[in-house]
Write a structure and sequence with these properties.
This protein is of the alpha/beta class and 632 residues long. It has 3 domains: 250 residues, Rossmann fold, CATH 3.40.50; 155 residues, Thiamin diphosphate (ThDP)-binding fold, Pyr/PP domains (Rossmann fold, 3-Layer(aba) Sandwich), CATH 3.40.50; 136 residues, Rossmann fold. The chain is built from 25 helices and 19 strands. The strands form 4 sheets. Strands 9-8-10-11-13-12-17 form a 7-stranded mixed sheet, with helices on both faces. It has a 5-stranded parallel sheet with strand order 2-3-4-6-5, sandwiched between helices. Helix 5 packs parallel to helix 6, helix 14 packs parallel to helix 20 and helix 16 packs parallel to helix 18. It is globular, with a radius of gyration of 27 Å. The termini are far apart.
């Protein structure tokens, strides 16, 4: 056997189809090494990708992609898939500006059939693809790869319910690693746990599939022992059918997700069914890298780190940590305070709360819709529920916020982490829509702090001094610059600078820091501006509108979408009040591509440099126009 790299010789899935299992195992080692090396440099999803290497190789060795279609649920585990579908030479660019996406992207490769980034979508999408393949008379297979964590999301069951009775060539591969981001919770997790602890059943079933492959006699023998398999299942599981079979799927498994030959046998057997099949495989999240194996929660999504030590290259205080500590402090004084997370206890800063106040901490799994309605139920019976959630995932609970909380004027608190541009995860994860869609819902109050101290004050206000739905939105990462002479004051809005200036800059959240930088640069050039900072962004403070009305030029800079956003609404309200000046809005058009946050803000015209340039250019043009007017 040669020591030459196998991975660098792979240009398409066709290159692995003739490989022996031993060669595929060797290739798996090389892929893992490349994943660790790449994520250590760029950051990204580590533990989930390390866990599916053999599974990915087995899928591509049996199915004929892109004729056959693979839908990766969430998609954060697609790095190995990308490496063997012609993108290995660019894997070092993953999650960088103009580089490979950290998720499947149809625009990136013919081997990516569906864009994913949020959980529990794969079965529904794969069923749609399978139906389209049938309508187009294509003899192909559609495969949905879904994790056990994603099965805590309701959409997965809607897909299973519809797919099981479809009769289509659909294969669902359940990647069971006992985790989503945090450890899985709920009845399905317990059910899968019961299935996966049956090694005797697993070994016996594998032998049956091996017999099935024997020419001529294989199928008669397996049909003869089918009743034995059924008896084994009933004895082991204590039920006539498991949940998946009740949905209408043929269930195979559980299988060792790191045993390529075992997986290949299962996939070939599933292909012969020509009807919905669910294959249950068990994998180890973080496999092959000791730090990730021992602590898969911390190594789920990581920033750049040192491979030798596992330690992050940069750290520091962040909004999530401040939120978590403040929650613990408030919970020690208020017994009704409850915390809810959707499988994100570490990411949202609630890990300490989950240990200190176990009876008031609820991890509902990847089920944001349920989390909001569950919080509404808690509130209806007198509790003070706080749901900590990333902005991008809050989108999934729009109807629940409206129907189950706001219309009933129930007091729930939404702590919206990762609000604004988040950087390298790209379009599916940008937190730029929450302010716009919350604006359409009645009985909602939204606070937007720009510092750690303001976050703590806003959280207290949201929990104890606000009626109806209250939200506190804050960005990813740490505090940015704030001038020493800036005073928060705890009011709905703050005014910073000379109120007699002719130019007013309006903004909220961390964009205030960029505005302050720009103000200082403009002052050095003789351009005086005043900044109006919205601390409460919904409902819009009437006093803030009154402050803005007399100015000749009002600039609104918003790290959120233009259409339906706060900036658009502020301008509308201002003109309704009789504003006669000029209104300038800089906001996002949506679909912000992956890039470092600083770069994305710069391209959108929202960093301090671009704010300075925008105002300076307008002042210069206005000055020239006035000079020309005087001449004529």
């Amino acid at each position: 056997m040669t020591n030459k790299s196998l991975l660098d010789s792979i240009n398409s899935p066709a290159d692995i189809k003739e490989m022996t299992v031993e060669e595929l195992d060797r290739l798996a080692v090389e892929i893992r090494e490349r994943i660790v090396e790449t994520v250590a440099q760029n950051g990204g999803h580590l533990a989930s990708n390390l866990g599916v290497v053999e599974l990915t190789l087995a899928i591509h060795s049996v199915f004929n992609v892109p004729d056959d279609k693979i839908v990766w649920d969430v998609g954060h585990q697609c790095y190995a898939h990308k490496m063997i579908t012609g993108r290995c030479s660019r894997i070092n660019t993953i999650r960088t500006e103009n580089g490979l996406s950290g998720f499947p992207k149809r625009s990136e490769s013919k081997y990516d059939c569906f864009d994913t980034g949020h959980s529990s979508t794969s079965i529904s999408a794969a069923l749609g693809i399978a139906c389209a393949e049938k309508l187009n008379n294509r003899d192909s297979y559609t495969v949905a790869v879904i994790g056990d964590g994603a099965l805590s999301g309701g959409l997965a069951y809607e897909g299973l319910n519809n797919a099981g009775r479809s009769g289509k060539n659909l294969i669902v591969i359940l990647n069971d690693n006992k985790m989503s981001i945090s450890h899985n919770v709920g009845s399905m997790a317990r059910s899968l746990s019961r299935m996966r602890i049956l090694p005797g059943y697993l070994r016996a079933k594998t032998k049956v599939h091996r017999i099935e492959r024997v020419p001529v006699v294989g199928k008669p023998i397996t049909s003869g022992v089918k009743h034995v398999k059924d008896w084994m299942r009933d004895e082991f599981f204590g039920q006539k059918n498991n949940l998946f079979e009740q949905f209408g799927f043929t269930y195979y498994g559980p299988y060792d997700g790191h045993n390529i030959s075992q997986l290949q046998a299962a996939f070939r057997a599933a292909k012969r069914k020509n009807s919905p099949v669910l294959i249950h495989v068990c994998t180890k999240k973080g496999k092959g890298y000791g730090y990730a194996e021992s602590d898969p929660k911390s190594f789920h999504g990581v920033s750049a780190f040192d491979v030798e030590t596992g330690e992050p290259r940069s750290g520091g205080e962040c909004y999530s940590n401040i939120f978590g500590r403040k929650m613990c402090e408030l919970a020690s004084k208020e017994k009704r305070l409850c915390a809810i997370t959707a499988a994100m206890s570490i990411g949202t800063g609630l890990n300490a709360f989950s240990k200190k106040y176990k009876d008031r901490f609820y991890d509902v799994g990847i089920a944001e819709e349920h989390a909001i309605t569950f919080a509404s139920g808690l509130a209806a019976d007198g509790m003070l529920p706080v749901f900590a959630v990333y902005s991008t995932f809050l989108q999934r609970g729009y109807d629940q916020i409206l129907h189950d909380a706001a219309l009933q004027k129930l007091h729930i608190v939404l702590c919206i982490d990762r609000a604004g541009i988040v950087g390298e995860d790209g379009e599916t994860h940008q937190g730029i829509y929450d302010a716009a869609f919350l604006r359409t819902i009645p009985n909602v109050t939204v606070y937007s702090p720009a510092s750690f101290r303001e976050l703590e004050a806003a959280l207290e206000k949201a929990i104890f001094d606000t009626e109806g739905v209250a939200a506190v939105r804050y960005p990813r990462g740490g505090e940015l610059y704030l001038p020493e002479d800036y005073e928060f004051g705890g009011k709905p809005f703050s005014v910073y600078g000379n109120e007699d200036a002719k130019i007013l800059l309006v903004t909220y959240g961390r964009e205030f820091s960029y505005a302050c930088f720009a103000k200082e640069k403009l002052a050095a050039q003789g351009i005086d501006i005043c900044i109006l900072k919205l601390n409460t962004i919904l409902p819009l403070p009437v006093g803030a509108l009154m402050k803005a009305k007399p100015y000749e030029d009002v600039y609104f800079f918003e790290e959120g979408v233009r259409s339906g956003g706060l900036g658009e609404y502020f301008g509308f309200c201002l003109y309704q009040m009789g504003f006669v000046g000029r209104y300038h809005l800089t906001a996002l058009s949506g679909c912000v591509p992956q890039a470092k946050t600083d770069s994305a803000l710069h391209k959108a015209g929202l960093d301090s440099k671009m704010i300075e340039i925008k105002i300076k250019n307008d002042v210069s043009i206005g000055g020239k126009a006035n000079a020309l007017k005087k001449k004529t």
